[in-house]
Design goal:
It is a single chain. The protein is an all-alpha fold. The chain has a domain at about 50-160. It is built from 6 helices and no strands.
Length: about 160
C-alpha cells in the first residue's frame, strides 16, 4: 500500500513516475561534438597557458594580471561563447614583456595603452588620465584583433598539444 502511494505521488509529479523514468534519448552526433567543444573551451578558461613572447621579461607578469586573464576568458565565454579570440588582458600579457625589452612603436604603443586602459578599469584600478587611450582607429583595432586571434590560435595549439 505504501509503495503504491509513493508511486502515485511520483506519477503526479510532471505526469510521470520518477521511480520508473525512461533512459534519456541519445544525443545526436552534432550535439555531442558541440558539447565537447564547449567543455574544452570551459576547461581552457582555467588551464590554457598564458601566451607570451620569448623574452627574459615573460616571467614577470603580475599575479593580479594573470587573474584578470582568467576572469576575462570567463566573461568572454559567458557573453559570446562562439568568439574565437583572445581577450584584452591576454593582449596586455603578450605586449608587457615586449614593452620592457624595447619601446613599442606608435601603433603598438596605442594598442597596448588602449588594452591596458580597458583591463585596469575593469579591474577597478586607476588609470592616469595622461596614459588612458579611450578608442582606437579602425587600422589599430584591426591590428589588436589580429593579435587576439593569434593569441587564441596559440592557446588552441597548446591545448591540443597537452592531449
Amino acid at each position: 500500500m505504501q509503495q503504491l502511494l509513493f508511486e502515485n505521488i511520483f506519477d503526479h509529479i510532471e505526469g510521470r513516475s520518477l521511480m520508473r523514468a525512461e533512459p534519456p534519448e541519445p544525443m545526436p552526433p552534432s550535439e555531442i561534438a558541440l558539447a565537447k567543444k564547449w567543455a574544452a573551451k570551459m576547461a581552457g578558461i582555467f588551464t590554457d597557458p598564458l601566451v607570451v613572447p620569448k623574452s627574459p621579461w615573460s616571467e614577470d607578469i603580475p599575479e593580479w594580471l594573470r587573474g584578470e586573464v582568467t576572469i576575462e576568458r570567463f566573461i568572454q565565454m559567458k557573453t559570446d561563447p562562439d568568439v574565437e579570440m583572445g581577450t584584452d588582458a591576454e593582449a596586455v600579457v603578450y605586449l608587457l614583456p615586449l614593452s620592457q625589452e624595447a619601446p613599442l612603436t606608435g601603433d603598438f604603443y596605442e594598442i597596448y595603452m588602449y588594452a591596458c586602459t580597458k583591463v585596469l578599469r575593469r579591474a577597478g584600478r586607476e588609470v592616469p588620465p595622461e596614459c588612458a587611450v579611450e578608442r582606437l582607429d579602425d587600422y589599430r583595432m584591426g591590428l589588436l584583433n589580429h593579435l587576439k586571434h593569434d593569441i587564441y590560435r596559440s592557446r588552441l595549439k597548446a591545448r591540443k598539444g597537452r592531449k
